[in-house]
Design a protein that fits this description.
five-stranded antiparallel beta sheet; 16 strands; 16% helix; alpha+beta
Amino acid sequence: AMWKLLILTATTIVSPVYAQTCAQADAALAQAYTQMKEGGSHSYAGSANENQRETAETRFHQTLSTYLQQSDSWACRFPRTTRAGIIIHTAPNGRLRSFSWDAQSGGTLREYHNLFQYRTPSGRSATQKGEGILTGIYSDTLGQHGTAYFVTSIGKYSNTLYGQSLSVWQISNDGLRPLNIIRTSKATNTLSYEYSASHSGRNEDFAYDARSKTISFPLVPKADANHPDAAYGAAQVSNRRIRYRFNGEQFVRLN
C-alpha cells in the first residue's frame, strides 16, 4: 500500500489577538509540551492522563500557530522549546521552516505532527499543517518554476519497517502547493520508499545536490520470499542510489 508521510492542508491566515515576545512564546510552548509528555502514553512517571495531554496539545498548537503569524517570530530560535524536544528545520533562504513534534499519544508506532511557517510572496507570515516528522528542507531555483522547496520526512510503521519521502513545494499567497515536476509514471511532487530497519550503514537518506540539481535516494531491492521482511515488501538498503536530475522542466530518472 502506498503511504504518505506528508499531508498538507491549508489554514486560514488570522491576525494574532495579541503580540507575544519570543521569550513569552518559547516559555509557553516549552511548558505545554512538557505537560503533553507528562500526560502522554510514553510517560515514565505513571502519570498518563489523556485529558491533560489533549488539553496541553491544543494549547501548544494554538500558541505556536498564532505566534508564527507574527512577522517578528522569524527571528525567534525557540531555545526552550527545542530543548523540550521540538524539531525545527529552516530552508536556506529563510522563507520556510517546519516544527515537528511527537504527539505523545501513540504506542510503538509514534504519532508525529508538524506545522510549517512560510513567508508569502506578498510578505505575510502564515502557517500550514502537516503530518509526519520532517528531517530537512532544501531550496533551489528551478528555471521557469522559480524557487522550489524540497521537504524530506521519515516514518516508522513497525519495529522493523521504516519509510522516507521527499516532496517538492512552492510558496504562493494561497499557501504551500505541490510542484508536480518529478516524472515517474505520471507527474508528481513526491518520491518515497520503504526499507527494513535491520540494515546497517548510512545510505538510507534522501539527498539533493544543488550544483547538479539532482535528487538521490537508495535502491531498496525487493525482499527474497524466504526473508523475514518479505511480508512487508521492503528489504535492506543497498549501496546503489537512484537519481533524478532536473532537465530544465522536470526531474527525470538517470539510472
